[in-house]
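ingest -> fold -> write
write: protein_1
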Amino acid sequence: MTAAAQAHRPFILRIRPRPRMTELALLAGVAVTLVTGAASLGATERLRAAQEAGRAVKTLDFTPPDPQGLLVYLGALLAVHLVLVIAGRRLDQVLLPAAAMLGGLGLLLMQRLPQDLVVQRLAGAEMGLGQLQLAWLLIALGVITMLAVGLRSDAWLRTYKYTWAAVGIGLLALTFVLGSETNGARLSLSIGPISGQPSELLKVILVVFLAGYLSENRSLLAEEHTRIGPFRLPPLPYLAPMVAMWAIALGIVVVQKDLGAALLFFAIFLGLLYVATGRPSYVIGGLVLFVAGSFVLYQLFAHVQTRVDNWLDPWKDPQGAGFQVVQALYAFGRGGLLGVGLGAGLPTIGGRLPVPAVHTDYPLAALGEELGLVGLLAIMGLYLVVVTRGLRIAAATRDEFRALLAAGLALVIGVQAFIIAAGNLKLIPLTGITLPFISYGGSSLLANALVVGLLLALSDRGPEPPAAPRPKGRRRLLGRFRRGTGAKGEPERPGVAA
């Protein structure tokens, strides 16, 4: 046997398939739910089309609007599950089904919406909204699988944290030169045929950087302090590099008017700082700075003023700036407790959708109308499951970097879902960030796939300890005899003191 073959032989022997029955059962539930929803959606759409055409409907056709797309998605989920089984790693079995359910709901929503909302030509073929969402979902599942199976060491993350941060900030700064504006904000970066939002990638990079820096300086930040009058602040020499890196990213985002990403970064920063130090004073001080900074931004940027004014009183201009906010509230009102049913909502007004950005900024408005309050609570419960599993992974690891990284990644999903949900429900001004795994967008899906893939890799509990070998033959009989006599060595003999 050659040296190369001997080098690869131990690795091959270590790969032992491991059943993942919990994950398989949950994925089966996901498949049943999505197939049922797609069938209901298909029947409702055909019934509406028949009613609009004045035709009588004798029997309902429950064929999904895009059965091939749904089968491809479910087949991809099964393939990911089989790869995880073959890999044999002891990974979390709840994360993938939760993310798959969210992604499936997003796919059904994109198939239900008008397909000409987003149209792209790839390799000579024209793809609509639903097909593009499916393509990005398949790529996202591939990213999750590669990270879950292939990521064995986190050294390349913690060692090069400053390099990752510099790359992320550099990509974000490039949007000043090569970026394109969307609704007054310069968000997208286009390099050749590839385009995306660097802020989506930067949220993952920021967590990696903060986890690496805080894990190295946690004890100093938690125990030491700098006193300025009656206030006790973190030790500035150790906190300054981290704050500077965060401030550069936040400053660029603010100048680009991407306030949703700015709020997300700020929340992640405060959350990880509290997780690392356990000091609520840091969070309170950060919230005070946030309120003061928000007031300054409101005075400086007309874009911020418009968003805040629309939040406070959207009925001031219901046909103009406040149109989407008002129509979203009407959609939630029409949905009520149980919703109007998949496919039965979103009537057009003057030939157009009442919420033009429903596929990006307002997906919960569409789902709230068709699934009702119960459906919205179920969706938010799925996000809570992802966050809870991430925090459990963080609590189970003994390495500080891995613990902070898992907690930060869980915060990314939870905070982002809260921000967009609160914006849709008019609890806070709409910030324009996407709803994880549901909103349309390739960069958003890939960034959230990185989060889930990293969490799966961090959940690995290592090789299972081998079971104690069972004694056979004479050794088993001798063991039973010793247990019966109570002796540790030779069996007791009459007349001999124990």
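write: protein_2
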Amino acid sequence: MKNRLSVLNEKFRSLTRKGTLLISLLLSFQILLGQIPSGYYDAAQGKSGAELKTALYNTIKDHTVISYSGLWTAYQNTDEKSSGKIWDMYSDIPGGTPPYEYTYSTDQCGSYSSEGDCYNREHSFPKSWFNDASPMYSDLFHIYPTDGKVNGMRSNYIFGNVENVSWTSLNGSKLGTSTESGATLTEFEPIDEYKGDFARTYFYMATRYENLIASWVGNATDGDEILAGNSYPAYKDWYVQLLLRWHKEDPVSQKEIDRNNAVYNDYQHNRNPFIDHPEYAEEIWGTPTGSISFTSTPITSATVNTAYSYNITATGGDGSAITISATTKPDWLTIASTGDGTATLSGTPSSGDVGTGNVVLSASDGTNSTTQSFSITITSATNIVDNNTTNIRVYPNPTTSILNINLPLSGNYRIVLVDLIGKQIFKRDNVNSLYTIDVNNLKQGIYILKISGSNFNKLVKIVKQ
């Protein structure tokens, strides 16, 4: 590939005097064959933290600015699905059927009253936060085509993990409140498959506009809750941790890679470094010295009339005693903190507690603080079923390599496999007969298989040997 690119470059250099068209062709060949330009990130080598962020700023600054109206035309190239439809992250369902799709230009907003009416231009980093100033106002790396109604519902609210849902879009994006910051905030939560996309967008904004972002905090009515008022780290600690978690849990997709190349090649001639080099995010915003972190893993399941207990630990800080408290928890739980970085969250749920309860823990030494957010799913004892459940066969169980799920039931069902701390391993919708899951790569241990439908909900204990 390298030799082929060199030959093409040499050939086109000899012809560039004949017109600007050949220059354009040369650039197209370089992008097609090389993707990331050779040497583009040389200045980042050997750096970390604020120094790495500044090196990347110097690499991607002074991009070619397109007009705000030019975004409409750009979307046909940067945000087009293979089907020719516009790629809207507020309505798309990866691997499934979206509730609606948009045709380029034809469905461009316009006015809207409900979902599916039209698509418009969503400043995922709200434009009011930077007072509608250029070049942020038309920067393609944070402005996406999205459904007008969902865009309007999102408004200027920050992205986050919603705990109490007030509205849900047709693809599952949520609006509601959360206490993950330590205060009750209204937040908007995209679906899991696009959380990493928006996290890398925010890392880009903090880097590309390193020289400006410190001043934006005064304009950002909702952004004040996440902007730190400085160039580094640019975001408050709790939000840095949220972005890093989304970045890790939703890795870079081919969609992002293709979009990154299109923006660089055809429009702005700069790149999002966190798509090209995902490791840069951790190298810049990894856990800073003096910060507090939780070192215990939450227990996310409980059974009616059975004692629940989670032994919590947190370390770090400035050497002062660390106190752990619960800013949000179900009433059936109590917390006892020792004041030395340990605490116990315990209680016994009753039948009235069946469902999901949200928990937000805070650890503080008086100067530094952090939060841990999770949910506890409470089930009746009868909901944990064995392999002999009527009309359901899950086999072999225990298993070493595959898991067969036979559902001789009418209707379509969702199957979800989680570990004992609630982390999702596998999910599949619209299962209505026999389905097989490959579990070769799972560690030995116990897992929970959730089988659910409109009038059916069962949990099956799975043993991986």
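write: annotation protein_2
The chain has four domains: 1-34, 42-285, 292-379, 383-464.
Residues 1-34, 382-389 have pLDDT under 50 and may be disordered.
pipeline exit 0
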